[in-house]
């Protein structure tokens, strides 16, 4: 066992002196993630703010048929009414962004309203437009106009408004903001740390397996008194530790990112801190260890089997996309942590994270997830040792 | 002391290999890389295993270094059975090849210390031995530099230091000078001589007759996995029918 410790110490020193490992392990989680979060938040806020400030340029066809509505829109500072536009050009103008939208009022509009009948008008818009602000603004203003007309009609007949509004719905949502955000953050978090645990472990894994073969140092270490189990365990531990570190640093990076992003409403911040509390972080971290152990054993096994650094890279890079699939499945509605899904690697971690954050995790499922991951990691290590004992694999060139 | 008895190694032959190789070295579709070789290397003497490329030298030495498991036969290093107790054999030998790699991101001292620790040396033992070895090889000037920054000659010295740091009684060198320049080869030649003078058992393989003539006390010639000469340098010279070592070697290999 002391030899495993010696090998671990040496491989660890060797690995963290490699710039490429340091970049995936430290720079990506601690610099790129906070910048991404901060940048995305800033960008999103700016775009929303700009869309709100920007005026909507619209055409009003037939203002003379609805002077009341026309007046309201013309008085609203959010609208600019373009003049001299023909109805048949609306399509082209909206499509080319010259107009944001239009209202077309038929000749009978005010007559129908005056006769207490229903009148119709059309609003033109392009829903593929960013945020679709113009349609919302037009509807708001028309709805308000509509409400006023209805109120006048009710009043003219001396009726109570309640007659037309028999049921009032009082919405009582018992989901806390934590639960609502939990689904979002709980969905995003596993992507982040599962992917980083894998990519973090990948590079050292390739380097310590195929890389060692390629550099000719494999013969050197094989001629030492260390046996093959000790060598594999030492390497495996380094790969796992680097993977876990990347993932934990990514959670830290997320924390820093949120911290450094100004203008997040206090209410949402409170919920985020509530989600990222010690208990949740500890449970997620405890899932991370066996998960990364499983990743490390698979990565190292394939790396030992590969002939060269390049071959290992081309086998493992697509695998980092495959790893994301169970995470995505875990985010689909209706898929929940059960005695069966708790046994599926990666999927179990993704589902458990969601439930831990929402506070609905069942201890039995958590235990099953641990057992499954530890068993798979054990099998993975056995498979590394098996390959490391095979002369045909070891001296494959 | 190394004793090798009827040692054989067969590899599963790939289609490509079967086509390329002499049908002579194929048995039931398997490649007979080493075929029942026996020899003995004694302490204080240099034993040269000589053969052309592909003769089975590396396979034989890798078996003795316990990297490959023999298909048949056995070997003993200082009385330890190499098949039954490979780890104890590795504790007793120093193994070096012409292209044994080093870890570029470690310093020379770290590299040597790593192997010393794997061999069970504690910090004090290592320091004492390190001083001795680094001085003998004139390595102090670059002891704390990363291996990536060292010249080929310096790297070879680190390899040598790594091989002998635990003061093994038996040293095995597989084509130790292959690909090296004259100066660096000289360091290896000096190492082999000093190991012999210290009473160690030295086994080395080469395809260079000059090295054999210069260094060996005992000689074995291997070709297509089989030994067809095994004796002292004197015995080799006595049976020579050709004017030089090289001619004799080519003659023997050609006849086989």
Write the layout of secondary structure elements.
The complex is a heterodimer of chains A (397) and B (256).
Chain A: H1 2-16, H2 19-53, E1 56-61, H3 67-75, E2 79-82, H4 90-95, E3 101-104, H5 109-114, E4 122-124, H6 133-156, H7 177-215, H8 217-222, H9 228-260, H10 266-275, H11 278-305, H12 309-322, H13 324-330, H14 347-358, H15 363-389, H16 391-394
Parallel strand pairs in A: 1-2, 1-3
Antiparallel strand pairs in A: 3-4
Chain B: E1 2-12, H1 15-20, E2 26-27, E3 30-41, E4 46-50, H2 57-64, E5 72-77, E6 80-81, H3 86-92, E7 93-97, H4 108-118, H5 123-136, H6 152-164, E8 170-174, H7 182-197, E9 201-206, H8 209-215, E10 218-223, E11 226-232, H9 233-239, H10 245-255
Parallel strand pairs in B: 4-9, 4-10, 7-8, 8-9
Antiparallel strand pairs in B: 1-3, 1-5, 2-3, 5-6, 10-11
Helix pairs in contact in B: 4-6, 6-7
Please explain how this structure is put together.
The complex is a heterodimer of chains A (397) and B (256). The longest helix of chain A has 39 residues, at 177-215. Chain A has helices at 2-16, 19-53, 67-75, 90-95, 109-114, 133-156, 177-215, 217-222, 228-260, 266-275, 278-305, 309-322, 324-330, 347-358, 363-389, 391-394; strands spanning 56-61, 79-82, 101-104, 122-124. In chain A, 69% of the residues lie in helices and 4% in strands. Chain A has a four-stranded mixed sheet. Chain A contains 16 helices and four strands. Chain A is elongated, with a radius of gyration of 31 Å. Chain A has 397 residues and is mostly helical. Chain B is of the alpha/beta class and 256 residues long. Chain B has ten helices and eleven strands. Chain B has helices spanning 15-20, 57-64, 86-92, 108-118, 123-136, 152-164, 182-197, 209-215, 233-239, 245-255; strands spanning 2-12, 26-27, 30-41, 46-50, 72-77, 80-81, 93-97, 170-174, 201-206, 218-223, 226-232. In chain B, the strands form two sheets. Chain B has a six-stranded mixed sheet with strand order 7-8-9-4-10-11, sandwiched between helices. In chain B, strands 2-3-1-5-6 form a five-stranded antiparallel sheet. In chain B, a hairpin with a 2-residue loop joins strand 2 and strand 3 (30-41). In chain B, helix 4 (108-118) packs parallel to helix 6 (152-164) and helix 6 (152-164) runs parallel beside helix 7 (182-197). The longest helix of chain B is centred in the C-terminal third of the chain and has 16 residues, at 182-197. The radius of gyration of chain B is 19 Å and the shape is globular. The A-B interface holds A 3, 6-7, 10, 13-14, 17-18, 212, 215-220, 222-227, 391-392, 394-395 and B 11-12, 62, 65-69, 86-87, 90-91, 93, 95, 97, 99-106, 110, 114-115, 117-120, 162.
């Amino acid at each position: 066992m002391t030899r495993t410790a010696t090998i671990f110490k040496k491989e660890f020193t060797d690995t963290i002196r490699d710039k490429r490992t340091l970049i995936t392990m430290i720079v990506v989680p601690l610099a790129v993630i906070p910048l991404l979060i901060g940048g995305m938040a800033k960008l999103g806020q700016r775009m929303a703010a700009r869309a709100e400030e920007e005026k909507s340029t619209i055409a009003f066809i037939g203002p003379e048929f609805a002077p009341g509505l026309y007046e309201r829109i013309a008085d609203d500072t959010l609208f600019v009414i373009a003049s001299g536009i023909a109805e048949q050009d609306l399509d082209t103008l909206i499509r080319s962004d010259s107009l944001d939208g239009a209202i077309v009022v038929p000749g009978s509009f005010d007559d129908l309203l005056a006769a207490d009948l229903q009148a119709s008008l059309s609003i033109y818009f392009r829903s593929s437009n960013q945020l679709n602000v113009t349609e919302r603004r037009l509807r708001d203003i028309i709805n308000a106009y509509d409400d006023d007309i209805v109120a006048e009609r009710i009043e003219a007949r001396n009726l109570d408004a309640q007659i037309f509004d028999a049921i009032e719905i009082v919405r009582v949502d018992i989901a806390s903001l934590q639960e609502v955000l939990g689904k979002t953050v709980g969905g995003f978090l596993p992507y982040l740390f599962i992917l980083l645990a894998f990519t973090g472990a990948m590079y050292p894994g390739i380097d310590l397996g195929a890389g060692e073969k390629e550099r000719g140092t494999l013969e050197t270490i094989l001629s030492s008194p260390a046996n093959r189990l000790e060598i594999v365990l030492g390497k495996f531990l380094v790969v796992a530790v680097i993977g876990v570190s990347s993932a934990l640093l990514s959670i830290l990076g997320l924390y820093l990112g949120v911290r450094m992003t100004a203008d997040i409403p206090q209410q949402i911040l409170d919920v985020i801190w509530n989600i990222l509390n010690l208990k949740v972080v500890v449970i997620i971290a405890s899932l991370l260890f066996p998960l990364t152990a499983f990743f490390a054993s698979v990565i190292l096994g394939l790396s030992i089997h590969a002939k060269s650094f390049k071959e290992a890279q081309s086998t493992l890079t697509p695998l980092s996309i495959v790893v994301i699939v169970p995470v995505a499945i875990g985010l689909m509605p209706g898929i929940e942590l059960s005695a069966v899904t708790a046994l599926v690697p990666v999927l179990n971690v993704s589902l458990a994270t969601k439930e831990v954050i929402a506070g609905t995790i069942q201890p039995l499922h958590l235990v099953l997830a641990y057992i499954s991951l530890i068993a798979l990691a054990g099998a993975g290590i056995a498979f590394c040792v098996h390959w490391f004992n095979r002369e045909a694999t070891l001296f494959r060139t | 002391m190394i004793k090798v008895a009827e040692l054989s190694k067969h590899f599963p032959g790939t289609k490509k290999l079967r086509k390329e190789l002499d049908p002579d070295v194929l048995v039931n579709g398997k490649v007979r890389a080493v075929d029942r070789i026996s020899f003995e290397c004694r302490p204080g003497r240099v034993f040269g295993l000589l053969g052309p490329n592909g003769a089975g030298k590396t396979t034989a030495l890798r078996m003795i270094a316990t990297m490959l498991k023999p298909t048949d036969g056995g070997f003993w290093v200082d009385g330890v059975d190499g098949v039954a107790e490979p780890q104890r054999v590795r504790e007793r030998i120093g193994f070096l090849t012409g292209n044994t790699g080093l870890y570029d991101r470690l310093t020379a001292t770290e590299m040597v210390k790593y192997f010393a620790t794997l061999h069970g040396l504690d910090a004090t033992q290592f320091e004492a031995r390190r001083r001795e070895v680094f001085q003998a090889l004139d390595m102090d000037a670059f002891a704390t530099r990363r291996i990536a920054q060292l010249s080929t000659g310096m790297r070879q010295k680190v390899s040598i230091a790594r091989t002998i740091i635990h003061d093994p009684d038996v040293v095995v060198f597989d084509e130790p000078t292959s690909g090296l320049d004259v100066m660096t080869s000289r360091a290896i030649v000096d190492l082999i001589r000093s190991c012999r003078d210290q009473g160690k058992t030295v086994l080395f393989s080469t395809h260079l007759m000059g090295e054999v003539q210069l260094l060996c006390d005992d000689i074995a010639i291997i070709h297509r996995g089989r030994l067809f000469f095994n004796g002292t340098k004197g015995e080799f010279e006595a049976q020579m029918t050709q004017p030089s070592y090289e001619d004799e070697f080519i003659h023997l290999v050609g006849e086989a």
